[in-house]
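MOLECULE: protein
FOLLOWS: sequence and fold
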Amino acid sequence: MIIGEYKSKVGEKKRVSLPKKFREELGEDLILTRGYENALVFVNKNMWQKVAQEVMNGSFTNKDIRDTSRFLVGGAKEIDLDNQGRFIIPQTLFEHAKLKTNIVFIGLVNWVEIWDEESWQERVKYLQEHGEEIAQEISKMNPQNNG
């Protein structure tokens, strides 16, 4: 299971090392793309195919589906890790996530997010302040919890 939080630093040429635990869980054939809230999303090809299928199953005449495709699929890059698990973050993705020197890898069961450390700290603060509201909204989406 892909879980946990790991801090890292961006090296020269925007090179970073994917934490070993995540490398073991994700395997090879990795895709890095734009995520929401200025994060990046790392998935393996199996998970990527599921994401792509969900996007492709929608009608391209639907504006929201086109926009989602542009955002997720249009920004995606295949990533090769070296023997030490390092990779280079492409410039467009680096800029999207507003990355600086300190970054955080977050394991979210099926994927890994990469955040600038300051942005992640701000997001955690937001989640701490609004966690109850968010949980209530989620419970409204699942009719089994409204009994």
User: Anything to note?
Assistant: The longest strand covers residues 2-9.
